[in-house]
Amino acid sequence: MLRNPSIAIGGGIVVLMVLLALFAPYLQTIDPLSMNPLNRMKDPSSAFWFGTDAYGRDLYSRVLYGGRTSLTVGFAVAVLSTGVGLLIGLIAGYYRSLDGVVMRIMDGLMAIPAVLLAIALSALLGGSVLNVVIAIAVAESPRVVRLIRGIVLSLRERQYVEAALISGVSRSRIIVRHILPSTFAPLAVQATYVFASAMVLEAILSFIGAGIPPTTPSWGNIIAEGRQLWQIKFFIILYPALFLSLTVFAINIFGDGLRDRLDQRGDRHL
Amino acid sequence: MTTLRTAHGPAETTPADPADEVLSIDGLTTSIRTGQGDRRQGEQRLIEDIGFSVRRGQTLGIVGESGSGKSVTALSIMRLLPRSATVAGRVMLKGRNLTTLSDRQMADVRGDRIGMIFQEPMTSLNPVLPVGLQIEESLRRHKVASGQAARRRAVELLDRVRIPNAARRTAEYPHQLSGGMRQRVMIAMALACNPELLIADEPTTALDVTTQAGIIDLLKQIQADDGTAIMFITHDMGVVAEVSDDVLVMRSGRIVEHGPSQQIFHRPAETYTRQLLNSVPRIGDMRGKPGPAPFASIGDDGAALAPSPLEVAKGPVLRVTDLSVSFRVRNETSRFRRTTLRAVRGVGFDLRAGETLAIVGESGCGKSTLARSIMGLQAVDSGAIEVAGRVATSMTAAEARLARKAIQMVFQDPFASLNPRLRIVDSLTEPLTAHGVSSGGARATAVRLIEEVGLSAEMLDRLPHQFSGGQRQRICIARALALEPEVIVADEAVSALDVSVQAQVLNLLMQLQARRGLALLFISHDMAVVERLSHRVAVMYRGQIVEIGPRAAVFERPAHAYTRRLLSAVPLPDPSRRHKLSGIEELFGTPSAEPSTAAWTDLGDGHRVLAA
Amino acid sequence: MVQSIANRLISTVPILFVVSVLIFSLLYLTPGDPAQMIAGAQATQDDVERIREALGLNDPALMRYFDWLWDVLHFDFGRSVFNGRSVTELIMQRMEPTFSLMALTTLFAIVIAVPLGVLAAWRANSVVDRIVLVLSIASFSIPVFVTGYVLAYYVAFKTGLLPVQGYAFLKEGVGEWLAHLVLPSVSLGLIYVALISRITRASMLEVLSEDYIRTARAKGLLGRRILFVHALRNAANPIVTVVGVGVALLLGGAVVIESVFNIPGIGRLTVDAILRRDYPIIQGVMLLFAMIYIVVNLIIDLLYTVFDPRIRY
Amino acid sequence: MRDLKAVLNLAAAACIAASVGVASTLPAHAATKSVTAVLEAEIVTLDPHGTSAYITRTFGYMVFDTLFAMDSNGAIQPEMVDSWEQVDDLTWTFTLRDGLTFHDGTPVTATDVAASLKRWWSLSTMGRLLKAAAKDVVAKDDKTFEIQLAEPFPLMLTSLGHPNSPAPFIMPARLTETPVGQPLPEIIGSGPFVFDASRHFPGDSMTLTRFEDYKPRDEPADFLAGGKVVNIDELKIEVIPDSMTATTALSAGEIDYIQYAPFDLLPILEQDPNVTVMGFQGLNMFQGYYPLNWRNPPFDDPAIRRVLWNFVDQSSVPIALGLSEEYMVPGCQSYFMCGTPYETTAGSQFPDEISVEAGRKALAETDYDGEEIVVFQGTDIEALRVSSAVLYEWMRQVGFNVRIEAMDWATLLSRRKNENEWHAYGVHALGLDLGNPLSHFWIARNCVDFPGWFCDEGITAGLDAFKEAPDDDGRKAAAAQISEAAFESVPAVMWGQFAQPAAYRSDISNIIPSAIPLFWNLEVDR
């Protein structure tokens, strides 16, 4: 698996980011929340490795902790939306009677652009990590539902599923044994994309003013807060943007690698 | 210069005139780099040291089972293999070595000097371009004709491959044509620039037998007119015998035997060739035999046992009465408008224990729908299905589940009918545990089953991809037997297999039937296989059974016109018994169904025919 | 075909209904009150209550919903709580900028992305392919507002070649219009380029392994004709699908880009309305988005028939 | 299907044609003299009586007119009124100037004035004082109206001329029938600029044109008072929500005026020869506040509220906002701001050393038992965001168990109504309002049902004294009395006095220095 360069490089960067986030309390230099207006917008130095922001907070420590929040948001959204999407998708795909109603609701959710739905939810629910996660997950789930439903619909027609059916295996057992395992690979790939797009969406929510409050640093809100200042002090958005983009990039290529790896169809080309 | 490496080179039937030699191949070896990305790097030989030549006006048949390298040979000549393949050796076309040409020069040769037709006419024609354009662009590319002239020439070509209303057809898209017509378009395209060599790679495999007959006839006609050299690649011994002057037998990338047709079919020198020929059922072989007969001397299953004569004492284990099935189709041609397709119309028959009833028919005749309806996988409109005396169509879900124990199915595609993630033992025990057998007991049964189908118990813990197609089909049969059914429905169960494997699986089915007294509903398009295996035969056409009766009666005294056409269209694997294939003129219009006034006529001995 | 389109449009009514219920319940369940916004921070509770009463916000939710639904059925989408302008009028004012932005972005993205994707597929696994892949993922990874700021500052402000912000209506001249839209479209389009080039590559790869491509090669056809005549049209449908799916993405991105470049489009109207709790506008705009989604899907389906003669309605 | 293809081809052709036709014609100003301004926010509510929002007041001063107005010294001068007379303790009569006309061409009458005042006084702080004292407003004839009082009201002219929002703008009587809260059916005023609904694109821009029939007073313009002579044809007010974009647009010459130049970009703008930065003093400055919620423990304990004096210094937040000293008054300890008529530090509880350390000590002496403090943070305005964040950080360091909740301003306004949900939030207001106890947002809200629910008898007594004081000395004494009570009971804690400088293209001159942007008097040299 690691021989695939996409997986190795992408995965490596992601693991590095996760480690940085996990060990942030040990790697930080200065309390990331501690403000000191006298130290505002200081250039990077030995005291402030990445400089300071408009409140005089240490950007290096904030970026470390920001990784915690951003990765948490990405991970939580990925887990939540794939989990919910899997459940609803299985139900919609296998129980045709529910399909119509469920898919109309999903259509309704999909009809509203994800960013706007997230903005609306987040603005209306109020800014907190949990609410941002919920908002983004609600916006992302319908796509997962569609994906899973499509897979279930095609798997239902597989001969081995029909073979199980005619040998008297119950529906619930067919779902667990024959259908569920086949959804894992595409679901894992989808989860990586959701992971990445949730992190970008979080930044956009912060930009609009409906994101996570700055007292909980995230890469998105560090960039959003610093955006007024970037013409004067470029580093304020440079570092968080670099970390965010690098991570999103890494997750994406990891996802691509995973897809190539898991995609049996890849072997079909001579 | 006809240097042939095999000991059994072609006899000097015709004097070798070097000027006549269109293609001459020597030491052709193709390998492919395996393992891209994270897999191991390596090189795999696909074909090795292939040498032969084709003369003007001659047809060389290349025959072999899957993986024998016959298609790779063709693609190597055309240099159409992926970049990761390397081709060594000499490919001389009219004295020009194709292997040393630049890519651009080779592109000039393709379509101009060598035409090629492929197996799947549906997928080999570009679905989004009008067929006329697809012919014209070849003409334009090789500067044979341009502008209006190209358009006229395309119409002429379509005319020549006997497509009616050729002028109008040029604007149509491939999906608007029938399978046979598509293949005719392919031929027209390949012939557009009057190539010296035509390579036909399994050109009739995807076609129904009656359509196939027309295509073979057309190719013969063209060769007679133009003297084009033809390389005809196929796995079907009957087709080879029908078309070839010389035959080349391939196996595992090497030439096994090469010689004139008569010699290969009548005096094969190699064991492999003999085995191959023995595995092929021939129509007429069964004449005068009372019941199904296993294939002889095909390796390990050769120890054949003669099936016991049919016991007719018992009542039917499966009775289908006046069954009709229709779909609301939303196919690719209409995403919103749905039409009703009446796939099965008023079908009825009985099946007794120990008996094999074969349902034969061409694609789209409704035979698979019939099988699925019997299995409860397809809702039916009307009619009754009785399994072991119980009416399955009126059962509750729970009852139906129990009834299903008595009837099980073997599917066509052995690669799709086993869950790739489950170990064999899990697939085999699944039906048992679903019906409450303990896992220990189920495992013991699985051991017994896998041995019964000729595999060994240590294979139980493997995954499906570690098995060949034939082995998988055996496993599927074992799974179907797990619940001790009284009836097995086999839907094209051997058509995806190579002939030698096919023969083995058929032998297995016959053995199992004899041993267990199974009733077998055998659904197939292959007349020869059906003749070999069945006690009774039902011919399906357009959703109806048009003729049903004992095997001997149907094969020897076919009463329905369609049955007769079907039988006469089958090519025989014997070059000395070539005949003017029936069904040459494919039905171009929509064949009308049997008129509703049609009624059953009893010809005695259970042989009945539907006729107006 | 007209019949089919009509059926399609009618079948979308449930979607619109679902959207309206979703949005209404969302607004009902969440805090925030337009009356308070109107009155201002210094208003006392009494003042706010008077305004609530004047706006009818004290009526039961269900009654408000059915009143609104009734009006919508009569094509009356209500009026802004704040300035009393009709929602229809407000939306109409914003249509041109947003649609211009979306159209130009789509055009830009397709013109760039499709050839890139074709190139990447043609030379799959080569260096070119890798570069295209990395560039497209990279453009996907940078938040759109960062791209927007950087382009506005370095391309527009530093060189003075293009306006830094704002929008010029088409009636003010095509040149002006285009000049104002170039940078927003490019910033927004980069994500889209990534998306389209990736699907183009994937779809082309799939198609290039098809039998008819082998047939085309067997005819001696050369690369460009095979790629653009034989392969691309067959690969078109997934691309069209993604272009369509991307419209939803664009609408979202437009919210951000309209803020960065100060374009008076629907995205900003929506965000303003959300932040201010201007319920009639939020509901109206969301219905509009649902309509756009439906119409775009319809167009996609019609485009399928253009590229693939097998599909008919 | 063929038709669709044809349409597509056509569309493609059109696109090509469009792209060929691109000329790099950049915006050129039309022959009309026009100024493009970006104000603090969008003018959302156009009803000048309907909201206390500053931006609507700004709009009101352009499109509407007032009876009296404040000059740069804080004195009240006549504007629409020509002459007036206090007949007795309970009767005032006023006569309007000649030639006052509404934008629809009808003359301004005393009836319109009476109706407008009665509509205005229900929502306005100043108006409510008048309403409480008044019996009626009566039109005597077309030009004369009389205010009849139930009790003496020394603040008559202040209430009619003070810019505290909403200010008493005059509109046609028929418009006053619209209840406050509902949008006005049309916007007709008698001010120097005319509003045209067809040139109003909510959320984007609004173009006001000069009112040709406006009769300015003869006196020179002096803050809100004096002759409002308009020297431009058009005023285009654009909404650019992103201040970064707005600043770049100003530098690029695409717009002419920004009301609030972003603090951090001030140094850049100051160096730009094409841009002038305008700072403010006194009443045109802002003061920040942390209003406290007296009903939510532990802030029901005044001792714990007083702890805040020990660590909320008066410069950290402005510095954190990016302001340099020239735009702030460091260490101002006056509730009524510094450099203003009622500046006072009476009763100041600020210690000499304001620090986290001092706060920690002070907290230790109280009964604070670790109850959770919730700080609300409005996220859509920078000063709100920064001040709340700094407060949170201070309280955290001091040893409060504190939590911050971020939300947009709309949500904050809505949620602060629930007394159990919050303890404090950061906000700021203009000196024009805070400079006077009667219009001071937190002092004047004493003992009314207002979020925070502060109620101190000492402040009430002081406010009464202020209202009744016959002269300015009396009012100053009352202000000091209020200050002492407020420092003791702490309805709100200030966090600093600062200016929000405006910036404009240097080819604009004679701009009136005012925190309320005024577009009369200014001249453009193009």
Automatic annotation (TrEMBL), chain B:
Name the InterPro entries for this protein.
Answer: AAA+_ATPase (IPR003593), ABC_Ni/Peptide_Import (IPR050388), ABC_transporter-like_ATP-bd (IPR003439), ABC_transporter-like_CS (IPR017871), Oligopep_ABC_C (IPR013563), P-loop_NTPase (IPR027417)
SMART domains, sorted: AAA (SM00382)
Q: Name one Pfam family in it.
A: ABC_tran
SUPFAM superfamilies recorded: P-loop containing nucleoside triphosphate hydrolases
| Compartmental location | Cell inner membrane
Gene Ontology CC annotation, any one: plasma membrane
Principal location listed in the UniProt entry: membrane
Question: Which top-level group of life is the source organism from?
Answer: Bacteria
Listed GO MF terms: ATP binding; ATP hydrolysis activity
Q: Which UniProt keywords apply?
A: ATP-binding, Cell membrane, Membrane, Nucleotide-binding, Transport
Give an example GO biological process.
peptide transport
Q: Which residues form the ABC transporter domain?
A: 32-277, 318-567
Name of the protein in its database record: ABC transporter ATP-binding protein
Q: What is the lineage of its organism?
A: Bacteria, Pseudomonadati, Pseudomonadota, Alphaproteobacteria, Hyphomicrobiales
UniProtKB/TrEMBL annotation, chain C:
Q: Where in the cell is it found?
A: Cell membrane
Gene Ontology CC terms, in alphabetical order: plasma membrane
Q: Show the CDD domains listed in the entry.
A: TM_PBP2
Which Pfam families does this one have? BPD_transp_1 (PF00528), BPD_transp_1_N (PF19300)
| Top-level taxon in the UniProt lineage | Bacteria
What would be an example GO MF term here? dipeptide transmembrane transporter activity
Q: Where are the transmembrane segments?
A: 9-29, 99-119, 131-157, 177-195, 239-261, 281-307
Give a yes or no for keyword Oxidoreductase in this entry.
Answer: no
Identify the main location.
membrane
- ABC transmembrane type-1 domain mapped to chain residues: 95-304
Q: How does it sit in the membrane?
A: Multi-pass membrane protein
Keyword annotations for this protein, in alphabetical order, are:
Cell membrane, Membrane, Transmembrane, Transmembrane helix, Transport
What the record says about family reads: Belongs to the binding-protein-dependent transport system permease family.
Name of the protein in question = ABC transporter permease
* Species of the source: Acuticoccus mangrovi
| Source lineage | Bacteria, Pseudomonadati, Pseudomonadota, Alphaproteobacteria, Hyphomicrobiales
From TrEMBL, chain D:
Residues folding into a coiled coil are none
Signal peptide as annotated in the record: 1-30
Sorted alphabetically, which keywords does the UniProt record give?
Answer: Signal
Main localization is periplasm
UniProt GO cellular component terms: ATP-binding cassette (ABC) transporter complex; outer membrane-bounded periplasmic space
- Presence of the UniProt keyword Signal in the record: yes
Name one matching Pfam family: SBP_bac_5
* GO molecular function terms noted in the UniProt entry: peptide transmembrane transporter activity
> What region holds the Solute-binding protein family domain?
76-437
> Where, per UniProt, does this protein localize?
Periplasm
Instruction: Read off the InterPro entries from this record.
Output: Peptide/Ni-bd, SBP_5, SBP_5_dom
Biological processes per GO annotation: peptide transport
Q: Which family does it belong to?
A: Belongs to the bacterial solute-binding protein 5 family.
- Tell me the PANTHER family matching this sequence: D,D-DIPEPTIDE-BINDING PERIPLASMIC PROTEIN DDPA-RELATED, PERIPLASMIC BINDING COMPONENT OF ABC TRANSPORTER
Q: What is the name listed in the Swiss-Prot or TrEMBL entry for this protein?
A: ABC transporter substrate-binding protein
- Origin organism is Acuticoccus mangrovi
What high-level taxonomic lineage is stated for the organism?
A: Bacteria, Pseudomonadati, Pseudomonadota, Alphaproteobacteria, Hyphomicrobiales
